[in-house]
Amino acid sequence: MRGKTWQKIALLAVSCMLVAGCTSGPGKKTEDTKSTLKVLFNDESWFYQQYGDLFTMKNGENIEFEVVSTQGLYNNSEGKTYEEAFDELVDKEKPDVLMLGTSNFEKYVGDGKLVELDPYIEKEKYNLEGIYPGLIDMLKEMGGNKLYGLSPSFYGNAVFYNKDLFNKYGVDLPHDGMSWQDIIDLARRFPTEGDEKTRVYGYGDNYPTSMDSLISMISSSEGLTYVKPDTMKVTVDTDSWKRVFQLAIDAEKSGVVYNPDGDGFSGGSMEEYYQSQPFLMGRAAMTVGYPYMLQNMKDAKERLKDYKPFEIGIVSGPVDPSDPTSTYNANLSEIFAINATSPNKDAAWEFIKFINGEDYARVKSRSGGDLMTRMGFKKDFEGQSLDPFYALKPKASKIYDNMEKLPDTFYGEYNTILTRELGLVKDNKKTLDEALKTIQAEAQTALDKGLKDKEANKGKEGTSTDSASGDSEVIVTHN
C-alpha cells in the first residue's frame, strides 16, 4: 500500500515538472502559467502600439502587462532630479521589465539591479547574429563584459548629399566615413554668391546652423564634452576643442553653411515647413540627417506642386577622425532589461526575447520609422539603401553621463559666455586662444558657484531640475 502511494507521488511530481515547468531558472517555459508583467515605460498606449499588442498576438494572453508610466517624472514637485525620481519609482513599483537609456543602464548594471541575460541566451541558443554589428559589444562593454539588456531599435544619422549639385559644380562625391572636416572642406567648393533665399549652400540643416550649434554637432560626433563630471572641471581649453572651434569659425566665415537671419521655421503649413529646408528643396549640397529625411522628401514631392526632385546619395558619418570606423551618433533610447528583484524573470525574458527577435523586426520594419537593430528586414526606403546607417560601429557616448550633477543654471551661463567670446573672435577682437582661456575661466567660476548653490538648496522643495533631465542639451566632457 505504501509502495503504491509513493508511486503516485512520484508520478505526480514528474507530471508537475513536464506540464507546469516546476523547475526554475533561465529558459523556463511560461506557456501554461499566467503571468502579469510590470513594465516600466514612458507611456502606456505607446507601449501597446509598439510592443504589447504584437507580443500578445504572437504569444497569446498567458502574459499580461501592467505598464508603469514614467510620465511626470520631469516635473516632480519635490525638487528631485529626474534620475532621483526615476530610481524612487523603480523602488516603489518594482517593475519586472525596465526601459533604460544608456546612462542609467550602466548605472543599474553597476548597482547590481539587473539580471544577466547571457545564461538565457546560452540555454536557448538565442540567435544574436544579424544584429547591428558592434551593438552587442557596446552593450557588453557597458555591462562589464556581460549582457544585461537588449534594444530592438536605435537612431543614428548619416551624411545626405545632392548628387545633381555635385555633378553640376564638378565636386567629388562624398565617401563613407566622412568627418566634419571632410564635410566642410567639400562644402567650401560650392559657390557662395546669390540671395540667401535662392542661393546654393555647401551645407544646410533643417534649421539655421549657427556657429555654436555647429560646434555642438562637431564635438558630439567626436565624443567631446565641456565638463568632466567626475572632477567637475571645465575642459574646453584643449587642443581637441581648439580644432573644433576653429573648424566651426572657418565654416561660418566662408559662408558655405546655411545660417540666415532669424530662427528658421517657427510655425505654419507643411508646405512652408518644407520650403524652409534648403537640402529638401535642392539648395544645399549636403546635410547630416536621420532616415525620416527620406520620408520628408517623399512627402514634399507629393505635396508641393512645383517641387523639383533630385538624385540623393547617403554615406556614413560624421565620424571622429581619430577613429573613423566608429560612431558616437548611434544611440539607444530604449534598452530593455530585467529587474534583479523581479519574481517573473522568465516571463520578462520571453518579452525581451520577442521584441528583439526576427518576427518583431520583420513586422516593425514595414510599419515603423525606426532603424531596427536586427538587420536585413528593412534594407531600403523607396529604393534608397539604408546600409550607411549600419556601416559604422556604435560607440557609447558619455555626453549625458552624470548630467544630474550639474547645476540647473550652468548651461545658460555657459552659453552666454560662449556666444560672447565667439562673437569677439568672429569680429577679430580676440584670438581663439584668448577666447578659450576666458571661456574656461569664467565657465569654471560659474560652475563652482552653481555647485555651491545647489548644495545649499539640496532637499528644498520647488528647486528647478530642468537641466537634469535626459532631454537636456547640456553637454559634459571627455578628452
TrEMBL record:
This is Extracellular solute-binding protein. Belongs to the bacterial solute-binding protein 1 family. Residues 448-479 are annotated as: Disordered. GO terms for cellular component: cell envelope. Residues 1-20 form the signal peptide. It is found in: Cell envelope. Residues 449-463 have a biased composition (Basic and acidic residues). SUPFAM superfamilies: Periplasmic binding protein-like II. The keyword Disulfide bond does not apply. Coiled coil: none annotated. Keywords: Signal, Transport. InterPro entries: Bact_solute-bd_prot1 (IPR050490), SBP (IPR006059). The keyword Transport applies. PANTHER family: ARABINOSE-BINDING PROTEIN-RELATED, SN-GLYCEROL-3-PHOSPHATE-BINDING PERIPLASMIC PROTEIN UGPB. Transmembrane segments: none annotated.
